[in-house]
Write a structure and sequence with these properties.
- By secondary structure, the chain is of the alpha/beta class.
- The chain has a single domain, classed as Aldolase class I (TIM Barrel, Alpha-Beta Barrel), CATH 3.20.20.
- The chain is built from 9 helices and 8 strands.
- Strands 1-2-3-4-5-6-7-8 form an 8-stranded parallel beta barrel, surrounded by 6 helices.
- The longest helix is centred in the first third of the chain and has 18 residues.
- The two termini are 27 Å apart.
């Protein structure tokens, strides 16, 4: 947050989000492959790990991201992002306010907001100082099978906000093109890359769409 991370320009490409993974070595190996495939951003998300595990894994991933020159975003946890000096945090509807996160993490932090299928949430997030807005799910997702469904017109309709837009939810290399054409700057993926037989190749295929 204090300039030690990669320089920030408008992002574009693959936004990889980690699956729950208890094994540090396996997590690092999978993330190494995804970053090697050209992921632009990495988000650490572990809903199953305890506080100690999450802090340890986040710190390991931060070092990995630094080597690749890629920002590390922490899912939901402002305190963890601050503790390890991550590049930012991603907040859902119940994860606290963007303005509080900004005060805690600083002006340089990347702060993203889940806006689901609601343009008014994106407008509110922009007004509160979000760095990007995320819409989804655009397709059925194994991570969140009951998530609200979004449509590409949200990406088009939020263009006037002037913020990078992230599309998430069941996206893979076969269905991402219409979302990119509609205005998605980043395609957020979990299973499409981390569950692939070859995560590096899967990431590279998605990155090539940009």
């Amino acid at each position: 947050m204090s300039g030690r991370g990669p320089a920030q320009t408008r992002p574009r490409g693959v936004y990889a989000i980690t699956p729950d993974e208890a094994d540090d070595s396996r997590l690092l190996a999978r993330c190494e492959a995804v970053l090697g495939g050209g992921a632009s951003w990495l988000q650490y998300r572990n809903k199953a790990g305890d506080t100690t595990t999450r802090k340890r894994q986040a710190a390991l991933l931060l070092s990995l991201c630094r080597r690749h020159g890629v920002p590390l975003i922490i899912n939901d946890d402002v305190k963890l992002a601050k503790a390890i000096s991550a590049d930012g945090v991603h907040l859902g509807a119940d994860d606290g306010s963007i303005s509080n996160a900004r005060r805690c993490l600083g002006e340089a932090a990347i702060i993203g907001a889940s806006c689901y299928n609601r343009l008014e949430l994106a407008e509110r997030a922009a007004a509160e100082g979000a760095s990007y807005v995320a819409f989804g799910a655009f397709h059925p997702s194994p991570t969140k099978p009951n998530a609200a469904r979004a449509t590409p017109d949200l990406l088009q309709g939020s263009r006037q906000l002037g913020l990078p837009r992230v599309a998430i939810g069941g996206i893979n290399a076969d269905n991402a093109r219409p979302l990119i054409d509609a205005g998605a700057d980043l395609i957020a993926v979990i299973s499409a890359v981390f569950d692939a037989d070859d995560p590096e190749a899967a990431t590279r295929r998605l990155a090539a769409l940009f």
